[in-house]
Write a structure and sequence with these properties.
Layout (H helix, E strand, L loop, with lengths): L6 H6 L29 H8 L3 H7 L5 H14 L5 H7 L5 H12 L4 H13 L3 H18 L4 H6 L6 H12 L3 H4 L3 H10 L3 H9 L7 H13 L3 H12 L7 H6 L6 H12 L7 H10 L3 H14 L2 H14 L6 H11 L5 H8 L5 H13 L3 H6 L1 H16 L4 H11 L4 H7 L2 H10 L6 H14 L18 H6 L5 E6 L2 E7 L5 H12 L8 E5 L3 E4 L27 E4 L11 E4 L12 E7 L1 H6 L8 E4 L2
Antiparallel strand pairs: 1-2, 1-8, 2-7, 3-4, 4-6, 5-6, 5-7
Helix pairs in contact: 2-3, 2-4, 3-4, 4-6, 5-6, 6-8, 7-8, 8-10, 10-13, 12-13, 13-15, 14-15, 15-17, 17-19, 18-19, 19-20, 19-21, 21-23, 22-23, 26-29, 27-29
């Protein structure tokens, strides 16, 4: 079948692609001054920080092209659809950079009408660099505005623009399996000839949930022997999507892979398989594995699938380990593994204890996993009262992380139960206990549960009022490319700041580093082929500062090595940051990128949950 190439492909076929195999290389460069030292731009920064669309529209008419370009880019952070008309006008600006920045910002808020204007601007544009920028912005908007089939995405493999090809293939991989099945052969062929690792990773992921022999054989070969860990990880996830018990032995064998990310992914696929597994084989592998992050979850599987004697021996061994202090993250893994054998009253004691937050979270999850379903089958009314009593105990701790975890569960309950539990006195006490900014994520979960109780739609996210002005004196001292060293037991990671595009975020990070805040903090969330995230004051991901930052969006995307700030929605960033260990273009335009890895991306890719930041320091 002859496929008509989309206009963007016709343009991008004439653009050259970078020749580094899909990886983003960051070479160490000396820090350079950044533009916020220009007094004329402070009005732009103030308007951006205060989300003042009217002021930014006025600045788009400034006599200085430098100011106009900065104002156009500021709209990428503000993301106010009401600014579309201002940005469309800016597409005709005399300055090429203003037109490029306006196109980028417009692409983040475009509706069908403004997308059409963006395409018209690209048609009349004379500068090739601006044409490409406009078409890239239009392509990103197109992905959001319209639903496309698998064939449409595959057609973009003909583009020579890496950004487009990567975005298209990630979007392809996120389609439901029913839409991917008819083009499985096309995807297989594309994956076999593709040379860009990031694009190939998404193509392999697009083979998910396809259980044909040729696909399964291809994926097992890739998971076993591909030279790149990122491809082995993608292949394992695609295989695991089928929940095929016949692959359990293969996943078990992959726990001996030389890459920790591959090991962790194989373990996750093994845990996702339903039905009885070979408990003796799991027990043998667990005994041979030295890494507690693998060993302890395998013990948990033994407790589910082993015979009575093996379970007894395994339980005895774990009981012995429980008398040692393995550290909060391995203690939590031990609680998870022991969960079925721990009395629910004992779990409640641990939940209400002063142990580290990550351990108490593990106890809560174990309690829910061991929930007394027998009582529910006998008498739902009695069961609801019993469950409500437990949840009230947890809510009574006034611990933000535990409350958030319970509220996430509450959204799964029916309104009758929620009315029994979330009485007005309880809701009132929770709101009094939770900090309106630091505990914002928990409050969001609570509001979702209340909406479910009242039969309402989940509330839309609302940005918090401006509450953390940028320290301009500190900003003036920061240079583009200022470097920071993260010392871990697995090596050093060197970051370089990008204050040009994320001034407030860079100032906040610098202030936290120089205050010693990150020293001793852990990476609490590690997902191979995605992120390593840390900096939570609680250590379980539910912590933050009593202030928030504005989301700051620049043109650099979330490629491998990008460093961003975690958030609970637009304009809620704080102290938690993440390092991209693979490309994830779906984060672009949604999260703040404030730095990139200069060296040590291999260290970041070896990180595991619980690995600590021994010291984080600014490099003179």
């Amino acid at each position: 079948m002859r496929i008509l190439l989309p206009l963007f492909i016709l343009v991008s076929l004439f653009t050259s692609c970078t020749g580094n195999g899909g990886r983003t290389e960051h070479r160490a460069r000396p820090p350079v001054p950044q533009s916020w030292g220009d007094e004329r731009l402070l009005a732009v920064l103030d308007a951006q920080d205060h989300r003042n669309t009217e002021a930014l529209c006025a600045l788009l008419k400034d006599s200085s092209a430098t100011v106009r370009a900065a104002a156009a880019m500021a709209f990428a952070s503000v993301q106010d659809s009401a600014a579309a008309s201002c940005l469309i006008t800016a597409l005709t600006d005399t300055s090429t950079m203003v037109r490029i920045n306006a196109a980028f910002a417009l692409g983040l808020v475009a509706d069908s009408a403004s997308l059409a204007e963006l395409n018209k601007a690209a048609d009349r544009e004379k500068e090739q660099v601006a044409v490409q920028s406009m078409m890239e912005a239009g392509f990103r908007a197109e992905l959001v505005l319209r639903k496309h089939d698998a064939t449409w995405f595959i057609s973009y493999l003909q583009s020579r623009n890496r950004d487009v090809r990567t975005r298209a293939m990630q979007s392809l991989a996120r389609l439901p399996k029913e839409e991917l099945a008819p083009v499985a052969n096309d995807i297989l062929h594309a994956a076999s000839v593709e040379r860009d690792p990031a694009v190939r990773m998404f193509l392999v992921g697009a083979l998910k949930s396809n259980a044909t022999k040729v696909v399964t054989d291809t994926l097992t070969t890739l998971a076993l022997s591909d030279s790149l860990p990122m491809i082995r990880i993608a292949a394992l996830r695609a295989l695991g999507a089928n929940k095929n018990k016949a692959l359990a032995t293969f996943f078990l064998e992959r726990l001996n892979d030389g890459d920790v990310g591959v090991q962790q992914t194989a373990l996750e696929q093994l845990q996702g398989i339903e039905g009885p597994l070979d408990g003796d084989a799991i027990w043998k592998t667990a005994q041979e594995h030295a890494d507690y992050s693998i060993k302890l979850p395998l013990y948990g599987l033994v407790m589910k699938h082993g015979n009575a004697q093996t379970r007894m021996v395994c339980s005895s061994l774990m009981q012995s380990l429980s008398h040692q202090d393995l550290g909060p993250y391995w203690n939590a893994a031990l609680v998870s593994a022991l969960g079925p054998t721990i009395a629910q009253d004992s779990l409640l004691v641990l939940i209400r204890s002063s142990r580290p937050a990550v351990e108490r979270q593990a106890a809560l999850v174990a309690w829910f996993d061991a929930e007394n379903l027998a009582l529910k089958e006998i008498n739902k009314e009695a069961y609801d009262r019993w469950l409500a009593g437990f949840m009230q105990n947890v809510l009574g701790t006034q611990d933000a992380g535990l409350i958030a975890a319970v509220c996430e569960k509450l959204v799964e309950q029916d309104p009758t139960f929620l009315k029994l539990l979330l009485t007005e006195p309880i809701v009132s006490s929770l709101r009094q206990a939770l900090h309106p900014i630091r505990d914002l994520e928990t409050l969001q979960y609570l509001d979702q549960a209340i909406a479910k109780r009242d039969g309402l739609d989940a509330p839309a996210h609302k940005s918090l009022p401006f509450n953390h002005p940028i320290d301009l004196a500190r900003l003036r001292t920061l240079k583009q490319g200022q470097q920071y060293r993260i010392n871990t037991a697995k090596g050093e990671i060197i970051l370089a700041l990008e204050p040009e595009n994320a001034p407030g975020s860079c100032v906040a990070f610098d202030s936290l580093v120089t205050a010693g805040y990150y020293n001793g903090k852990a990476f609490h969330r590690v997902i191979p082929n995605f992120v390593a995230q840390g900096g939570c004051p609680r250590g379980d991901g539910y912590g933050g500062m009593p202030w928030t930052l504005r989301t700051e969006i620049g043109p650099q995307g979330f490629v491998e090595g990008a460093v961003g700030l975690a958030s609970a929605g637009h304009d809620t960033e704080s102290c938690q940051f993440f390092i991209m260990t693979a490309a994830a273009p779906h984060l672009d335009g949604r999260y703040t990128r404030f730095a990139h890895v200069v060296s040590g991306i291999d260290v970041a890719q070896r990180l595991q949950v619980g690995d600590g930041m021994q010291r984080v320091e600014r490099i003179p």
